[in-house]
UniProtKB/TrEMBL annotation:
It comes from the Bacteria. Residues 72-115, 153-184 form the 4Fe-4S ferredoxin-type domain. It holds the Pfam family Fer4_5. This is 4Fe-4S ferredoxin-type domain-containing protein. Keywords: Cell membrane, Membrane, Transmembrane, Transmembrane helix. The keyword Cell membrane applies.
């Protein structure tokens, strides 16, 4: 009972000093799971096989969305489960991701140059990944990709080819570390996860081998060139546990924490989040509008087609959130420190809304198409009795769930703003500024609520 009380305290009471629980110590079966690499291999292999089947169904299967289940499996189950995983296990999904599977196989066969990633990639990878994310969201929307098996398979295949090329040219998971657009989004969202994978400084401080980053005994090092002792946040670490078998000091462990802990500690200092959050929120606003009658109004007003109108809304939405985040950070009055450097405290304020907004968008597709899954499966594989198992999730409940999640995101944002005002920046932020910050957040939430289909 004491253990569960501690868990509840960690989840609901923010403690920046000692607000973590070592899950390896409290639940040894979790540690055994991470140490037994066969489990990871089995899950990855299963994921790779399912992924291959999805691509084949998209390329060779029926192109009628009512006769191909790959659309629901890809956009409904896969995407929604990925977004949900952000809030619980951070980037652990990336540890099982099928995109680098072929590249990993080629590396295991010795068919790779195993070179270090070039400097231009380490410097410009964030910009390239952000551009790829814009391109993917744009293509998904304007081509109605969620209703096209072929285009969906083509998207998946193109990402696999990109990851494979990087795997052949460079060592490790170069694609995952620097170029994967989903990785950047997942990494940013993982800073709000309930868990974190960290090393023990006391165990690491006298280490001379740095095996977790360099490898040892023909065991390859951390696939994203990080090493447990360098995992200071959730942005890059894949939570793959590879460093566990390399560390001689039993240092890395999985910890339970308050979901806003990392956001408040770092106060928007991550440049990745500074790029990703306004782009993500701008895309969400444009996608929400796209699915409402208001989009037709914008289309008629601008006099352009759907593609140009959506691009315009995407760009304007992104610029709007960039300026809103800048303005909100200025209202905090304290956004630069001699030791801490520059930071953007408005980023962690809007971040809960940004990622619950993405969950709203993905979950809506899942709920709207859930009742069609079995009939679609029946039509595709000629299983006649499944066709009668059609049902519909009432639109009222879909909207209610969407509103609840948006309010949940707003609640998280209000809490972060209050914590900064009352504790982190105590006495530095004028009360009227604090009110304006909350009004900006309310305005963002109002836009999300107003443009719900």
């Amino acid at each position: 009972m004491k253990k569960w009380k501690q868990i509840l305290r960690i989840l609901f009471i923010l403690d920046l000093e000692d607000g973590r629980l070592n899950l390896f110590e409290s639940f040894p079966f979790i540690k055994r799971f991470f140490y037994n690499r066969k489990y990871f291999a089995w899950i990855r292999t299963f994921g790779d096989l399912v992924f291959v089947i999805l691509i084949l169904l998209g390329l060779l299967g029926p192109q009628d969305p009512q006769r191909n289940v790959m659309l629901f499996l890809a956009w409904g189950i896969w995407w929604t489960s990925v977004v949900l995983s952000w809030f619980f296990v951070g980037r652990m999904w990336c540890a099982f991701c099928p995109f680098p599977g072929l590249g990993r196989l080629l590396q295991n066969l010795g068919l790779s140059r195993f070179k270090n990633p070039p400097k231009w990639l380490t410097c410009k990878g964030l910009h390239l990944a952000t551009a790829l994310f814009f391109l993917i969201i744009w293509a998904e929307t304007v081509t109605d990709m969620k209703h096209s098996p072929f285009l969906t398979a083509l998207l998946l295949l193109s990402i696999v080819l990109g990851a494979t090329l990087m795997g052949v040219l460079y060592r490790g998971y170069t694609w995952c570390r620097y170029l994967c657009p989903f990785g950047k989004i997942t990494g940013s969202a993982a800073t709000m996860a309930l868990t974190e994978f960290r090393s023990d400084y006391e165990k690491c401080k006298d280490c001379k081998t740095f095996s977790c980053r360099r490898g040892r005994d023909k065991i390859r090092p951390c696939p994203v060139f990080l090493g447990a002792y360098h995992a200071k946040n959730n942005l890059v670490c894949l939570v793959c546990g590879h460093c566990l078998i390399l560390c001689e000091r039993d240092s890395p462990a999985l910890y339970l924490r308050h979901p806003l802990r990392e956001q408040i500690i770092n106060k928007g200092r991550y440049i990745t989040c500074g790029y990703v959050i306004p782009l993500l929120m701008g895309s969400q606003l444009a996608r929400f509008i796209y699915e409402t009658p208001y989009f037709t109004w914008f289309e008629n007003l601008l006099g352009f087609g759907k593609a140009v109108t959506f691009t315009f809304l995407f760009a304007v939405g992104t610029l709007f959130f960039i300026e809103l985040i800048k303005g909100g950070s200025i209202l905090f009055t304290y956004y630069e420190d001699e030791l801490f450097g520059r930071f953007s405290p408005m980023v962690p304020v809007v971040m809960p809304l940004a990622f619950t907004g993405e969950l709203v968008y993905r979950l809506r597709y899942f709920l709207e198409e859930l009742g069609n899954f079995l009939p679609t499966l029946g039509r595709q594989f000629h299983i006649s009795f499944l066709i009668s198992y059609q049902f519909e999730v009432p639109p009222f409940w879909i909207k209610t769930i969407s509103y609840f999640l948006i309010f949940l995101g707003l609640t998280g944002g209000f809490y972060v703003a209050w914590y900064f005002y009352k504790k982190e920046f105590e006495g530095l932020v004028p009360f009227k500024n604090y009110l304006f910050i909350n009004l900006l957040l309310v305005f963002c939430g109002g836009l999300y609520l107003f443009f719900q289909p």
